[in-house]
Structure formats: C-alpha cells, structure tokens
Design a protein that fits this description.
There is one protein chain. With about 110 residues, the chain is an all-alpha fold. The chain has six helices and no strands. The protein has a single domain, classed as Winged helix-like DNA-binding domain superfamily/Winged helix DNA-binding domain (Arc Repressor Mutant, subunit A, Orthogonal Bundle).
C-alpha cells in the first residue's frame, strides 16, 4: 500500500486540493520521521515550494484532509492506522505521523 491508496481507503477523495500535498508529505515523513517535528519550519514550506503554493495553503488544506477523514472517513481504518481508537480528530502532525508510521509497518510486515 502507498500513501495515495491509504488516503483513498480512509475516505479522502483525490479531488481535494490538499490530497497531493498530503501524499507528498506522508511519503516524506515515511522516509524521515523526524520531519514531523518541524512542520511549520520545514515540511510545510518545502511542500509549498514543491507545489508552488504558500505554506499557509498547505497547512489549511491539510487541516481539510484531516477534517474530511474524521467527519466522513473510515473510522475503523483510522483506528487501525492510529493503533488506538481516537476520541478526537488528530492534528495535522499526528495524522502525518500515524499514516507514515502505518505505511512503514506495512512494509516491514
């Protein structure tokens, strides 16, 4: 499974503006987990530069991705990805960390 497939399975449609940003960031965090600790200083600006948008746009669209996943997505799969049933929507950083870690675990299995 890859980041795009995981997001689609979580109920996030590819037509959302932030979909490609999320795929890109999940793939980066999957390779380098330390990136999740520097969202605003590194990950958002680098993603923004890559897609030729602003860092604020990347952050806002990522919040939308998380919101859509939480409100309309597959909560059972989200719990599996998180490793625990969530009682509140994850932050952007939590979401990126959980999804990247889930993909790493799948590859190690």
């Amino acid at each position: 499974m890859n980041a795009e497939e995981l997001l689609r399975n979580l109920g996030i449609a590819g037509n959302l503006k932030g979909f490609r940003y999320a795929v890109h960031m999940i793939e980066l965090v999957e390779k380098d987990p330390s990136l999740v600790t520097s969202l605003t200083k590194s990950l958002y600006p680098d993603t923004a530069k890559y897609f030729r948008v602003t860092a604020a746009s990347v952050e806002r669209n990522m919040r939308t991705i998380v919101k859509v996943c939480w409100n309309r997505g597959d909560r059972d799969l989200l719990a599996k990805v998180a490793g625990v049933r969530l009682t509140y929507p994850p932050t952007n950083g939590m979401f990126l960390d959980m999804t990247a870690n889930y993909l790493r675990r799948q590859k190690d299995a």
